[in-house]
Amino acid sequence: MKTMRKVFALLMALSMILALAISANAADGKTTVTINSSNNETGSAYTGYKLLNAIPAVGEDGKPIQKDGKDLYTYSVNAAYADVLKEVTGFETDSDIYNYIAKQDAAVFADKVYEKLAGVAGVPLQEGANEIDQGYWLIVETTAGQTADGSAGTISRAMMDTAGVDALTISTKEDITSGDKEITTINDEEQGDNTDAASVKVGDKIGYKLTADLDAKHGDYDEYFLQFGDTMVEGLKLVDDSIVIKFDGTPLSEREAAKYIQNATDTAFDVIFENLKEAEGYSANLKEVTVEYLVEVTEDAVKGGLNNTFTLQYSRDPYDPSQHGSSTTHTSTVYTYQLTVGKVDGANNALAGAGFTLTGPNGYTKEIAAADGLTSFVFSGLTAGDYKLEETTVPEGYNKANDIEFTITPTYNGDKLTNLDVTCTSDDQLVINSNATSCELAFNVVNQQGVELPSTGGIGTTIFTVVGATLMIGAAVLFITKKRSVN
Known about the structure:
The protein has 4 domains: 10-171, no CATH class; 178-328, Immunoglobulin-like; 335-447, Immunoglobulin-like; 455-487. Helix content is 12%, strand content 42%. It has helices at 82-89, 94-102, 106-115, 254-257, 459-486; strands spanning 10-12, 20-22, 30-36, 45-56, 66-67, 70-77, 123-126, 128-133, 135-143, 158-160, 167-171, 178-186, 189-190, 197-199, 205-213, 226-232, 236-238, 244-247, 250-251, 261-262, 268-273, 288-297, 304-315, 324-326, 330-345, 355-359, 365-368, 376-382, 385-393, 404-413, 416-424, 433-435, 440-447. Strands 14, 16, 20, 21, 23, 24, 25, 28, 32 and 33 form a 10-stranded mixed sheet that branches. Strands 1, 2, 4, 5, 6, 7, 9 and 10 form an 8-stranded mixed sheet that branches. Strands 12, 13, 15, 17, 18, 19 and 22 form a 7-stranded antiparallel sheet that branches.
């Protein structure tokens, strides 16, 4: 049974073995069978084995025997597969073989026969319509297809009765294990509607969830292989002892989970079930296996997208445990942004001697002190949200720049960053350049040279008023004195 590479057993059986009523319009002994994949797989190929021939039943007068207006048929063993049927049933004569088959579970019988058919030629069949002789057929899938998303298809079993049917459409009964990956939390706060992408900053902890929606027929396998493979880029680090495995939402014990967590490093790990059916808590009704874990954003996350990818491998052939299929790669991406602040004078020339402090979401604060020749200030590993930039050291001989408040707002499509909008809320004249591809934003802060003038109503105005009044009074006194001298 394990000698076949890719197998799906499709048993096309007659409901009556010794005699079967066949409609008159099927008297040519042919029928059309259309094979459709229940997984919408494409590229599958099949081989059919007609185990029994359909023979018209005739009377002594040579005319077809009918019942309720339908011709009756009897069956004979197809000589091409006689040895296989004799070995499986343990009988030699056609009648004994019929009687044996009539008492068997069709799926079990199909497995027994197919195990013995290795290397035996059959009839090539394809997806869609096929014309075949009426009879008792076993159909196997010699090439498994692919699903719409590119995942490897699986092998299916099915049963059908084709005798006396001019045309019949069947859907194979295979299912498939599928995978998914999502961002669930950032710093223990639930992620929003988009679970494929998020903005983060250095030090954040991201919660991820990997999901395997199991093949509904995994219980039919003698062994069922399942492997989660997760890899992340530099800038993300797996948090130690954070991996939790769940069966239908119920966590495995740490002792049990430790059996399956393998190859763990700072940026990768696997969860491998060589035979899921042997795991504690397994049942044939199990629908979902999940893996949840935490990842920390490190200082290496300067700017750009940080990918975390996941691929699922699974059993695809109930007859051959060594045959594994792979899902497409699922990717979740988190983004950090980099701000560059240029310091310039009123003529837009680079200006040294300044220092800045940037504050932002979740208590973010970073100060870059003044240094000789420093005119460009880079703040890396930023997330989305509201920020304030304050000039905390002012170049000598220049006025202090106003605080700048701005908001970073990303737009995603799946796990892709499609737009990076930066809006200044404190100065609508400030020009901010942003680039969604490089995850960068930049603007200049201008310092004007000179001493700041006092405002109206301040001490400066009072001094000017007093001095002005004194001068006016002095002029009046001088005018009166001169006039008296003339007189």
